[in-house]
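Below is how a single chain appears once it has passed through the pipeline. First comes the sequence as given, then the structure the pipeline wrote out for it. We keep one example in the README because the format questions we get most often are answered faster by looking than by reading.
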Amino acid sequence: MEQTKNSGKYRWTVVALLFFATTINYIDRQVLGLLAPVLEKQIGWTELEYSYIVTAFQIAYAIGLLSVGNLIDKFGTKLGYAVSIVVWSIAAMGHALAKSVFGFGFARFTLGFGESGNFPAAIKATAEWFPKKERALATGIFNSGANIGAVFAPLAVPWLTLTFGWQSAFIVTGAIGFLWIIFWLLIYERPEKHKSVTKAELEYILSDPEVDEPGEKIPWSHLLKYRQTWAFVIAKFMTDPVWWFYLFWLPKFLNKEYGLDLAHLGLPLIVIYTMTSVGSIGGGWLSSFFIGKGWEVNKARKVVMLICALAIVPIIFAAHASNLWLAVLLIGLAAAAHQGWSANVFTTSSDMFPKKAIGSIVGLGGMAGAVGGSLFASLAGLVLQLTHNYFALFVISGTAYLAALLIFTLLVPKIEPIGEIKLAKKELVEEKI
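Resulting structure:
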């Protein structure tokens, strides 16, 4: 503990940058969901057509993660993150030009491709700047930016739309990313090269036991040989779609079930996403707290993941809640628990894999989550088109996490650094020869 107090605090400045980037990321992706009830009337799309627009984003997100995580590992966090946010900011503003289902689908596709760089870059930066015992907390803090973005959007988007028209909501929120880039380029660098990092803080950042890091980036053909990779990928595939569902369908659910229009959606959404901020930071803090008390990483991460998975189950009853605020409470609890879950699942990638592979691992997991999200989006559109009822979708949302944790635990009985990385390194050398 004494080492923590005296080691310096510049690493938390980096977390602040990651937090604001994630906030902007979620503001930009949530604008369409907030405006969906308005645009549904103006553009005239059906539930199924709306699901196609959502799916376009998620397919592009998956495609982006196939390459972006790889490129971030290759070219570094600083450049990769900057390019990513330039692309998604331009795409976010481009929604203002859309006038049809196809136009919105194209804008969402481009936005999804650009936004795919956020989490691979942020998780890699966290691994570069934090020892393992602080990574879940740092991840929880920057990941809570998703919730702050989701709180800010319901405040800003209705006012911009009702005052200046829906196009202004896309233009103004999309432009924020360019401000972030200025600070990122001025502030960020690896800790070994950063002039503001003290010797004591650098030693603390690098205080984990040394492991044999491969000198070359590990290709996917090697990463896919590990059951740890599949555990992470399957967990993301099964649970990320639930979060996408909240983002893109929650305003429509509140509009349909409780008659909330754009002017009245703000407060319920703010309550829900404020709860998720607590869940994100709390989930990351709790596993770090357990590790600080002497628990093994494996036990700390999995106990917190189990607590979160159990807290999500009650959302099954949200579709038939007797009043608006009961539904808000159930959804808010589930969304908060998802973020606590997510903070710990993300951190398992850096618990198990060397830093050279983290961007690729997070990219693979994010891609799987986006593929799962596109499938769930298509299912949601079909179910709502046929039944006009959200019950089946909430049942899936409530049970996915326990199933994912079971599979994760079967594949990875103990979370620990991969011991076979030398084999991958040796094979890479042989391939070059």
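The chain has 18 helices and no strands.

See the next section for the split statistics.
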